[in-house]
Amino acid sequence: MKGGRLLLSGLLGLAQVVTSAPTVNLAQSLAIRDEPTKVVSSVPSTTFSDKTIFSPPTDAGWTDPRVLYARMIQLESGALLATWENYSPEPPLVHYPIYQSLDGGLNWAEIGRVTDDVNGWGNRYQPFLYQLPQDIGDFPAGTILCAGNSLPADLMYTKIDVYASRDQGFTWEFVSSVASGGEGRPVNGLTPIWEPFILTYKNQLIVYYADQRDPDYGQKLSHQVTTNLLEWSDPVNDVVTVGNYEGRPGMPVIARLPNCNYIFTYEQCGNDGCRIHYRLGPDPLDFLNAPDHPIRSDKGTRPSSSPYVVWSSLGGGNGTIILSAATTDKIYVNKNLGAEDSWIEFNTPQPRAYTRALMVYRDDPNLLGIIGAGWLPPSAVNYVSNAAIDLTELGV
Ligand SMILES: *[C@@H]1O[C@H](CO)[C@@H](O)[C@H](O)[C@H]1NC(C)=O
């Protein structure tokens, strides 16, 4: 859920600032994009935490909160890609930066930008990266998708658009628009949409999101499906707070479990303090009828706000569900396939953040990647940083 946002861009009128990249600039990167991407290592040579990927220049008119809402994935090649909300001075319109790491997350360089090619508003909020595990329509397995929420600077509209990269993240094309909503402020009665998340299931691609367009609910969770990435089904409800208009379920994130269930996590704002809930079920097209659970840890903690969840094969048959929440730097771990009484909390060395994202390294189920980009405004010190943490060293 977003807090109010100050719009300082435009007041500052500073010269355009090129986003600084730590090791190689964008023009150089783009010039070499046709050369094969050589992954040095799919895992880092050492564990680490709070390593800065990007910190905006302090004197260049970046809008508070500067950066926010980071996402990171590992491609089949072993390369990592990261993106985030990027509050660079406007004009030009804001975009989602695409940073790449070829050494498991220790070093990063900007290789591309997902710019708004259709609305004239900017790619402003809530980017999500996803690599297709199978062909969908004319998009072959391996294509990288970036879904995000495009809004104009005055926030009067919201629109979840999907872009695709067929070259590992260097260049991007607009694909289609999933849904459109109204003014982008988290106020009941307004009609925005928020926070897309992508999953593939039975040859369909599903986009889940938070939805304020239904007059019966302050906010609910919905999804739409496609078989070709061009045409989208009507929205289907995933979570609604029946009889309670004030309820605002938000920020859906899903992981597949080895017993063919899916865990669907979300924050329950409005009527439950944004505490994190989850649903477990075999059909990701029908979370509406799946039983709902609170998260309560072994220490009695009820984590809140902006969850992220992943599954690792660490620990045998059930593997390990790992959950992050905004209220703490801890992770919450469940080795019993999501059983309600089995959430154990562990400290991590990566600072808490608004919607910190998780990733399990493909070649090491013990290794958890975390990326964060600070806090909702006011937070003029936000930067993007990541960690690679050995779960067994934490005691998981
Ligand atoms: C796997 O999870 C199930 C369901 O909670 C539980 O009964 C079982 O003991 C777990 N197995 C292991 C090896 O932990």
Automatic annotation (TrEMBL):
PANTHER family cross-referenced by the UniProt entry: BNR/ASP-BOX REPEAT DOMAIN PROTEIN (AFU_ORTHOLOGUE AFUA_7G06430)-RELATED, BNR_ASP-BOX REPEAT DOMAIN PROTEIN (AFU_ORTHOLOGUE AFUA_7G06430)-RELATED
Keyword set includes Signal: yes
Signal peptide: 1-20
This protein's UniProt keywords: Signal
Gene3D superfamilies for the chain: 2.120.10.10
Residues forming coiled coils: none
Protein name: Glycoside hydrolase family 93 protein
